Amino acid sequence: MQIKKQKIKQNKKITIDKIALMIGSGFRSVDERFDKMDERFDKMDERFDKMDERFGGVESDISSIKEDISVLERRIFSIENILAEHGKDIREMKNILIEHGRDIKEIKAELKALKKIDNGNSDKIFELEQRVKVLEVKVA
């Protein structure tokens, strides 16, 4: 038993140098781990920087798209106003054509009456009938 105690005492004797070496190697392994963590964080920083650049591009694209939409909205509003004005003009033209259509019908009736009276011998009546036909095509 005494031999065992002596061996234990000898094993327990650790010098300050050994302790310093043990602590140093422990810190070295911790430092290596921190170095690896630093590398990972550096890579993450690079990735975030790239993402920031991409988002900056996306933000400018969105801003440009908003401006384009605003311009398009103004153009559509302008076109709507023009179409509304043209719609009014078309309705007015239709009313005029309807009025002239009645006039043409009246002229045709009068020409028929004249033709009956003249028995179709007048060149003037024939010429007027031709003009009425041209007007009918324009009105239709």
Uncertain segments: none
Fraction in helix: over 70%
Please report which band the strand proportion falls in: under 5%, 5-15%, 15-25%, 25-35%, 35-45% or over 45%.
Answer: under 5%
Structural class: mainly alpha
Alpha carbon gap, first and last residue: 132 Å
Strand element count? 0
Please indicate the count of domains.
Answer: 1
Largest sheet: none
Number of separate helices: 3
Secondary-structure element string: HHH
Shape, per Cα inertia axes: rod-shaped
Instruction: Provide mean pLDDT, rounded.
Output: 76
Q: Please, what is the oligomeric state?
A: single chain
* Rg over alpha carbons: 52 Å
Could you list some keywords that capture this structure?
rod-shaped; about 140 residues; mainly alpha
Can you give me a brief rundown of this structure?
It is built from 3 helices and no strands. It has helices at residues 2-12, 16-118, 123-139.
Give a verbal description of the structure.
With 140 residues, the protein is mostly helical. Helices cover 94% and strands 0% of the residues. It has three helices and no strands. The longest helix has 103 residues. The protein is rod-shaped.
Blueprint of the fold:
Blueprint lengths: L1 H11 L3 H103 L4 H17 L1
